[in-house]
Amino acid sequence: MKVFCGRANPTTGSVEWLEEDEHYDYHQEIARSSYADMLHDKDRNIKYYQGIRAAVSRVKDRGQKALVLDIGTGTGLLSMMAVTAGADFCYAIEVFKPMAEAAVKIVEKNGCSDKIKIINKHSTEVTVGPDGDMPYRANILITELFDTELIGEGALPSYEHAHRHLVQENCEAVPHRATVYAQLVESRRMWSWNKLFPVRVHTSCGEQVIVPPLELERCPGAPSVYDIQLNQVSSADFTVLSDVLPMFSVDFSKQVSSSAACHSRQFEPLASGRAQVVLSWWDIEMDPEGKIKCSMAPFWAHSDPEELQVRGTDISVPCFSGGLPQEEPVVQGSSLHLVAHHDDYCVWYSLQRTSPEKNGRVYPARPVCDCQAHLLWNRPRFGEINDRDRTDQYIQALRTVLKPDSVCLCVSDGSLLSLLAHHLGAQQVFTVESSAASHRLMKKIFKANHLEDKINIIEKRPELLTSADLEGKKISLLLGEPFFTTSLLPWHNLYFWYVRTAVDQHLGPGAVVMPQTASLHAVVVEFRDLWRIRSPCGDCEGFDVHIMDDMIKRALDFRESKEAEPHPLWEYPCRRLSEPQQILTFDFRQPVPPRPVRAEGSIELRRPGRSHGAVLWMEYHLTPDSTVSTGLLKSAEDKGDCCWNPHCKQAVYFFTMTDPRAPLGSPQTVSYTVEFHPHTGDITMDFSLSDTQDDGR
């Protein structure tokens, strides 16, 4: 059976209706899942196995049957561990139907189906009783419900319900306890992900400063934290202002509450500075004594750096950062209170001079953006706008193309280009903001800089522009970064090219387009860790999970194996095995061509290594002498370690993965076919390796 699915095309800007298989959503969910990545986390698996053995032993020592409730079982791995450890029976809950069906097969394959019942429900729908899903309450609770900030996947409500309805009082729990830690730092880089910095522009009339609206400066920011791999943040990018503070713990063996709460920790700053960001992570103890611990701490805060695990996605993301509502000066040795607030899904922080119990300032409600900027710009976009070197590139490029009589049209979502063009001498500037949110934000920015009467803002899709919108004038300079909030993959910002084509009638003779051209580039890499999300697991702690590997492979074969996916590669170290290579070029000075643009070729690998995939990115050539890269910035020539643009996601095309223990291959060639389809805006691709490297591994 086929179904029609509506899809907003981020490249062309149009809404398309596509005929898809009725299980298309399932295929996507499975293909993009991180099940394999989690199963490759050997440290996590071992610690869970140890904790489960200990819990089963404690129950058996009390002369009781070991009845296990496993919430979010996934493949059924933890339930199979429990059965192997001596559990009498396991009730394994999995809400995602395809995964539950796979778990049934995996459990049967491993000879555990007589002691494990897979329940395809949400845990809050499970019933207990003679006619229920479980005849009795369990006395061992096993879960893996944690995300970066511990509680973001609904762990607290799930535990709360389980203790009330599904498990016995004072049950054993694996994990037994979780503790959230925090450290206060000053970091211009991380603060730039949360606030808009002033932009200084040197003009013929002196220095002009673009300032953020007061509303934006006072805004507490987005309610969500920013998941990052702190191990990839240079220690030069922040100054530690506090010791690592244990903020709060959750004992999963007792009744858990999902009600809002706050936890205060008094501390004395280690140094004077400006408190801007809270770095936070957690650890879990698998046993009551805390002897079996799995830590997400970054390297500088890890109790035993020798045991530091490299973790990738999902549970393996080690840390998150959250900006304080406002930066605050702190003085070394002057006592302060760091307060962790949480509700059922979110954690946020505040800094207070006195204990919140004394002054009543507990901030029970999660922070909400009221300035529009945090709704329109994500953290990387804030960082991109605040990147002074990048801004200088645009300023220098604008100086070369602007004339005193220039009439400019700016097309990018929530961009400061229009302000730069005005300050650098354009006669008139129009800017198009197609969404109500970006329109409101830019109006606030223009007003804060007294430009509301000098820059014309048009709330309309650029394809629908009329001559009246432009006051009957012809555009002499069409500007774009380009950046659009709907873009997921690097080439989705080619929407700028479609806009340029749509407004062709409004361009005057000899009109200049900036960027003039763009190009798609690729490099073949070996990932240190990211390969795990596409690598089959096969055997996990002695259990056969090939069925899950096959399920993921079928989902990938449905479509996703022929597509690239976005990843912020500055967080995931990799080594280039080839030289960067230009694949396709796009000339914005001309309209979008009517026929596909196709490139075929090969990439020679110059270093030995495991070819995990090709990384693709866009480069925008503002002028012949100025290029902005969204991907590779530089790489160490000796080892080939890559340095990526931290403000953008790059596209990764994973090669077929087989045995992760395969030996390193010799330098070889990767063949490719890449095609741009102008009618749909899609870029399709296929990369193939020679046979000298065991099918990509």
UniProtKB/TrEMBL annotation:
Pfam families: PrmA (PF06325), PRMT_C (PF22528). Its main location: cytoplasm. It catalyses: L-arginyl-[protein] + S-adenosyl-L-methionine = N(omega)-methyl-L-arginyl-[protein] + S-adenosyl-L-homocysteine + H(+). The keyword Acetylation applies. Keywords: Acetylation, Chromatin regulator, Cytoplasm, Differentiation, Methyltransferase, Nucleus, Repeat, S-adenosyl-L-methionine, Transcription, Transcription regulation, Transferase. InterPro entries: Arg_MeTrfase (IPR025799), MeTrfase_PRMT7 (IPR014644), PRMT_dom (IPR055135), SAM-dependent_MTases_sf (IPR029063). It comes from the Eukaryota. It is found in: Cytoplasm; Nucleus. Arginine methyltransferase that can both catalyze the formation of omega-N monomethylarginine (MMA) and symmetrical dimethylarginine (sDMA), with a preference for the formation of MMA. Specifically mediates the symmetrical dimethylation of arginine residues in the small nuclear ribonucleoproteins Sm D1 (SNRPD1) and Sm D3 (SNRPD3); such methylation being required for the assembly and biogenesis of snRNP core particles. Specifically mediates the symmetric dimethylation of histone H4 'Arg-3' to form H4R3me2s. This is Protein arginine N-methyltransferase 7. It comes from Crocuta crocuta (Spotted hyena). The lineage of its organism: Eukaryota, Metazoa, Chordata, Craniata, Vertebrata.
